Amino acid sequence: MTATRKKIVVVGSVTLDLVTRTPKIPAIGQTLIGSGFDTTPGGKGANQAVAAARLGYPVVMVGKVGTDAYGPALLENLRHAGVDTAAMEQAEGSSGLAPMFVAETGENSIVVVPGANGKVDRAIIDRHAALIRSAGMVLCQMEIPMDTLSYTLAVCAESGVPVMLDPAPAAALPDAAFRQSTWFTPNETETAFYVGNEATVEESAKRLHEKGLRGVVLKRGAEGAFVSVLGEKAAWVRSFKVQAVDTVAAGDCFNGAFAVALLEDKDPWAAARFANAAAAIAVTRRGAQASMPSRADVDAFLAQHT
Ligand SMILES: Nc1ncnc2c1ncn2[C@@H]1O[C@H](COP(=O)(O)OP(=O)(O)OP(=O)(O)O)[C@@H](O)[C@H]1O
Ligand SMILES: [Mg+2]
After folding, report:
1. Dihedral angle at the C-alpha atoms of 195, 200, 206, 207, nearest 10 degrees?
2. Are 45 and 51 a contacting pair, CB within 8 Å?
3. Is the CB of 283 under 6 A from ligand 1?
4. 44-91+117-304 sits in which CATH class?
5. Where are the domains of the chain?
6. Is 253 helix (H, G, I), strand (E, B) or coil?
7. Which of 219, 243, 253, 292 to mutate to test ligand 1, by most ligand atoms within 8 A of the CB atom?
8. What spacing in Å lies between the alpha carbon of 260 and ligand 2's midpoint?
9. What is the pLDDT along the chain (306 residues), one digit of tens a residue?
């Protein structure tokens, strides 16, 4: 099976969080002495790529880092996780960065600088069109320009490549995006953005199907996921009970693992169970990419939870 595995291609964002720890959020004009500083790799695209690669699946990332000092570090981080960076490019200027203050009180203030992620354009998709067209699945999120996302979806639709679109952060999508996405994986607030607040999961899935989506996965945190495939079945896949310490990137872990399991021929509900297991492990660990489990971790977890 290994020899015939079609790659996962992630078209998306690569970001570095620049976290300054401070006693309190400084007021305008104020200078404070900080208590520490960390850099943590993130970006929904990179997180999902790392999640799938950590599970031992071949993953190629298509995206951009800047010409700043952070660019090479972001690429090295991806490679270290096992992600193929041959289709990553450099854009003049800053990488995608998220400088933030995190206060001891838990308050934070964050500025997201799209930098190179904002320069992921149609031209990079064209340069890597052969790779994208040969993918087993393409994973997209919404941290690159909407025009590029639309273009990627069209290229995939034209060549019959399945796409998993994680609509995060939620934003208005062109009608075609719903028809061209094979899987749509909103969390609770994103679901509300697309279908309105009052809907039940059943009703939400139905409304999303009416927009042209065939596969809908409604991620619901500690409740698990509601998986609905048009014309087949709609059912809850409940999460695993764990002691959550940090849910950052749980959804990204879920998406990476769900893609891997689908490409390994699990049916969507079995794939969601595998993804729930991977994400359950991730929430018991701190960090975004640092919390992504290996295949052995997930296998051991599932063996303990049957
Ligand atoms: N407390 C928890 N216990 C067990 N599993 C959890 C918990 N929280 C999240 N998960 C798992 O993670 C998945 C995704 O969670 P969630 O719905 O919070 O996604 P999200 O909001 O997209 O996350 P992200 O912050 O990464 O974008 C869930 O479907 C579930 O499998
Ligand atoms: Mg999410």
Report:
1. -10
2. no
3. yes
4. alpha beta
5. 44-91+117-304
6. helix
7. 219
8. 17
9. 555 799 999 999 999 999 999 999 999 999 999 999 999 999 999 999 999 999 999 999 999 999 999 999 999 999 999 999 999 999 999 999 999 999 998 899 999 999 999 999 999 999 999 999 999 999 999 999 999 999 999 999 999 999 999 999 999 999 999 999 999 999 999 999 999 988 999 999 999 999 999 999 999 999 999 999 999 999 999 999 999 999 999 999 999 999 999 999 999 999 999 999 999 999 999 989 999 999 999 999 999 998
Spacing, Cα 187 to ligand 2 middle (Å): 6
258 close to ligand 1 (CB < 6 Angstrom): no
CB atoms within 10 A of CB 105: 10
Indicate which residues carry an active-site annotation: 252
Q: Which amino acid is at 89?
A: E
Q: How far is CA 300 from CA 118, 167, 257, 277, in A?
A: 39, 31, 15, 10
300 CB within 6 A, ligand 1: no
- 150-159's contacts with Cβ under 8 Å and 24+ in sequence apart are 150/174, 150/176, 150/177, 151/122, 151/125, 152/11, 152/125, 153/177, 153/180, 153/181, 154/180, 155/125, 155/129, 156/132, 156/180, 159/132, 159/133
Q: Which two tokens stand for residue 147?
A: 């025009």
Taking alpha carbons only, the member of 1, 5, 72 closest to residue 259 is: 5
Q: In terms of Cα–Cα distance, which of 217, 215, 205, 300 is closest to 254?
A: 217
Distance 258 CA to ligand 1 centre (A): 13
CA-wise closest residue to 81 among 42, 135, 113: 42
- Atom index in ligand 1 nearest the CA of residue 240 equals 4
**Tokens 């193929």 found at:** 84
Q: In ligand 1, which atom is closest to the CA atom of 244?
A: 1
Cis peptide before 41 (omega within 30 of 0): no
